Amino acid sequence: MPNIKSAKKRVLVTEKKAAQNKMIKSALKTQIKKFMAAVEAGDKETAGKLYPETVSAIDSACSKGIMHKNNAANKKAKLAKRLAAIA
User: Fold this and answer.
1) Is the pTM of this model over 0.85?
2) How many domains does the chain fold into?
3) What is the tens place of the pLDDT at every residue in 46-58?
4) Domain-embedded: residue 29
5) Are 34 and 57 in contact (CB under 8 A)?
6) CB 4 within 8 A of CB 46
7) Rounded to an integer, what distance in angstroms lies between the CA atom of residue 36 and that of residue 17?
8) HSE-CB for 25 with a 13 A CA cutoff
């Protein structure tokens, strides 16, 4: 455990930010799973509604630095391809 005040603060801030990042990442994974479940079920209507929400979640994670922009683009392209396959 650090003794210096600034080091103690950094520990607290880092823990808080790590928790926020984990929450965002977890919500993103859940959103992607919902979309993929709709695609696997062949439900075009639900998948069509979930696609913009999923893309928005990916963009949000990308803008917050949780995910690299190329990784985000890759995921969005794969999701679009899956959506097009059932349409």
Assistant:
1) yes
2) 1
3) 999 999 999 999 9
4) no
5) no
6) no
7) 29
8) 10
